[in-house]
Amino acid sequence: MHRASANGEQYHIACRKGDLAEYLLVPGDPERVDKIAKLWDSAKKVSEHREFRSLTGKYKGIPVSALSSGIGPACMSIAVNEAASVGVHTFIRVGSTAAIQENIECGDLVFSSAAVRLDCTSNCYIMPEYPAVASFEVLQALIEAAECLGIKNYHVGITATTADFYAGQSRHTTASYQSST
Question: I need a labelling partner for 97 at 20 to 30 A (CA). Which of 63, 75, 166, 170 fits?
Answer without folding.
Answer: 63
